[in-house]
Amino acid sequence: MSAVTESVRVASHGNAFTRSVRDSLVVAKRNLIRMVRIPEVVIFGLIQPIMFVVLFSYVFGGSLDIGGSTSPQVYREFLMAGIFAQTVTFATAGAGAGIAEDMHKGLIDRFRSLPMARGAVLTGRTLADMVQTALTLLVLAIVALLVGWRTHTSIGEVLGAFGLLLLTGYAFTWIGAVIGLSVRTPEAATSGGLVWLFPVTFVSNAFVDSSNMTPWLRHIADWNPFSATVQACRELFGNPGVSTSDAWPMQHPVWASVIYSVLIIAVFRTLAVRKYRSAAA
Amino acid sequence: MPGAIQAEGLVKTFGDVKALDGVDLEVPEGTVLGLLGPNGAGKTTTVRCLTTLLRPDSGRAVVAGIDVLKHPDAVRRSIGLSGQFAAVDEYLTGRENLQMVGQLYQMRAKAARARADELLEQFHLADAADRTAKTYSGGMRRRLDLAAALVVSPPVMFMDEPTTGLDPRNRQQLWDVIKDLVSGGTTLLLTTQYLEEADHLAHDIAVVDQGKVIAQGTSDQLKARTGGERVEVVVHEREHIRTAAALLDKYSLRGLGQGDTTVEEHMRKITTPVSGGAKLLAEIIRELDAEGIEIDDIGLRRPTLDDVFLSLTGHVAESAQSDDEEAAK
Ligand SMILES: Nc1ncnc2c1ncn2[C@@H]1O[C@H](COP(=O)(O)OP(=O)(O)O)[C@@H](O)[C@H]1O
Ligand SMILES: [Mg+2]
């Protein structure tokens, strides 16, 4: 037993950063094991976006004007960046519900009583969510290809688009973390994580060409952080319907998307870690 | 010997509720303090303040020689906590749960795994080590939770109502585990609603009610404070009742409001309120013997902790009862 205590002391001398990385990975592994043991979560997470891909492609395809064209194929290619982006933001609800459940079950108390790095419980959770998001995107991309979505750029640009999507999703899970730490039940975290996402993802360029919107809505849509990611993806995929608006985020969507994500992470990570440290289950 | 746990004037308010209203505690190294009180007394809040989970509004606490408010991280390295509800991940196996906790105590993966195996053995969970905790019974989860609190053999342990909701067999098993632990020198602060449990496991008992420690001492001291100790004698021959009653009456505390010597003729039983414990009992036996009175039974009847609680708070520990009913559902 004294040998064990000894190794604890020795290990705790590691510097704060490596300790933080190591702890985050331990927690991420725990969340990934849970994901494998509760595959329903991943599967249900796929149904909704797949339904959107199919429904939007066949119902709206041909009836919406994208850059002067009403061809169903044009709409399909236009649509996918929007659905991919919407899907990654839905990870918010998963992160929030998971953290709220951990609070509810007393696991957060256990973690908080351990000599572990401050933000590791939350970072571990958001990293695991990013793995789930990547998996979801992969399946979704295959379904999109099946209904006729194509990219017209280099592989590097396509991968860059998926990288931006993952970064956006990761940023949004930190908003989920704050929600999860603020509510009393996992159910509240799920609905609280979702409701505000509908206006955010619909008042954007995701499903319709924002140039058809009334000016004030269009203004919001153009500056919506979510629109920046969609616009960047369309550009990087070589898909139609890239907005010609002269709003800065629409002119520099990749930069805008990165800046927005980093800002969201900086603000919400700080808030989440502060809430975590004073969490009262 | 310095106190392994010291708290001075802990105050914690939640909105209008004064959960802690100046809690003072001192637990000497290597001893067990039972924090006894009904639901809502402030037991959990006290534990949360001492284990760095909650910052008190005012007051001071030192655990394992470290100031809790100034160096919470150092305190975390020296304590183990088993909270009021078993905090295990249901979708992880017993082994995975313990290994994770070990790694978060900054142990290397391999060392954490070895320690997990050791603990699973010690807590009779080796057979269930590779099953998810979801499949565990309430008692098994509790044991796993306790094992998780012991991963680094911390010198100071906190257990918040470790046996609430367990059936008698599991409770007994957990008591054995806890006794084992403290015989190894661990300092333990244990909260409970069970008077019997505090009596059984703790060297010292602190009775809390409405955010205050209203009495502290050994179980014997608390009982003595309540008074109500009595000697009961059953004589063999009916004709000896009178003589024996007169003899016992000499030791009676009559006049202190403790009542008179009573006689139950049909049972040949005489009861008298006394104070002085076992020494007195020996003296009475000698005297009865000298008088040639043969006895069938003699005993010192002590008040239970229920009596203690009632006399200290003026109300019975009802909530413990209702909690039991809830747990039984
Ligand atoms: N997080 C909280 N928010 C509001 N009130 C609380 C909170 N935690 C505890 N309380 C209140 O503080 C009092 C003491 O609670 P607690 O310490 O849990 O008691 P015990 O563990 O002895 O049952 C109760 O009245 C309880 O309702
Ligand atoms: Mg409690």
Number of domains of chain A: 1
H/E element string of chain A?
HHHHHHHHHHHHHH
Number of domains of chain B: 2
Rg of chain A (C-alpha, Å): 20 Å
If helices are DSSP runs of H or I spanning 4 or more residues, what is the number of helices of chain A? 14
Please count the helical segments of chain B. 12
Helix coverage percent of chain B = 25-40%
What distance lies between the first and last C-alpha atoms of chain A, to the nearest angstrom?
32 Å
Oligomer: heterodimer
Shape of chain B: elongated
**Order of secondary-structure elements of chain B:** EEEHEEHEHHHEHEHEEHEHEEHEHH
Biggest beta sheet summary of chain A: none
Radius of gyration of chain B (Å): 24 Å
Shape of chain A: elongated
Note the topology.
The complex is a heterodimer of chains A (281) and B (329).
Chain A: H1 2-11, H2 16-37, H3 39-60, H4 72-89, H5 91-104, H6 107-112, H7 120-146, H8 155-182, H9 186-194, H10 197-202, H11 215-223, H12 225-237, H13 248-251, H14 253-277
Chain B: E1 3-14, E2 17-28, E3 32-36, H1 43-50, E4 58-63, E5 66-67, H2 72-78, E6 79-82, H3 94-104, H4 109-122, H5 138-149, E7 156-160, H6 168-183, E8 187-192, H7 195-201, E9 204-209, E10 212-217, H8 219-226, E11 230-235, H9 241-249, E12 262-264, E13 269-273, H10 277-290, E14 295-301, H11 305-313, H12 318-328
Parallel strand pairs in B: 3-8, 3-9, 6-7, 7-8
Antiparallel strand pairs in B: 1-2, 1-4, 4-5, 9-10, 11-13, 11-14, 12-13
The complex binds adenosine-5'-diphosphate and magnesium ion (MG).
Description:
- The complex is a heterodimer of chains A (281) and B (329).
- Chain A is mainly α.
- Chain A has one domain (16-277).
- Chain A is built from 14 helices and no strands.
- In chain A, α3 (39-60) runs antiparallel to α4 and α5 runs antiparallel to α7.
- Chain A is elongated, with a radius of gyration of 20 Å.
- Chain B starts with a strand and ends with a helix.
- Chain B contains twelve helices and 14 strands.
- The radius of gyration of chain B is 24 Å and the shape is elongated.
- Chain B has 329 residues and is an alpha/beta fold.
- In chain B, β1 and β2 form a beta hairpin.
- In chain B, α8 crosses α11 (305-313).
- Chain A binds chain B through residues 1, 4-5, 7-8, 11-12, 14, 19, 22-23, 26-27, 29-30, 33-34, 37-38, 105-107, 109-116, 120, 278, 280, and chain B through 48, 51-55, 73-74, 76-77, 79, 81, 83-92, 96, 100-101, 103-108, 111, 115, 132, 148, 152-153.
- The structure holds adenosine-5'-diphosphate and magnesium ion (MG).
- Residues 43-44, 84, 160-161 of chain B line the site of magnesium ion (MG).
- Magnesium ion binds next to α1 of chain B.
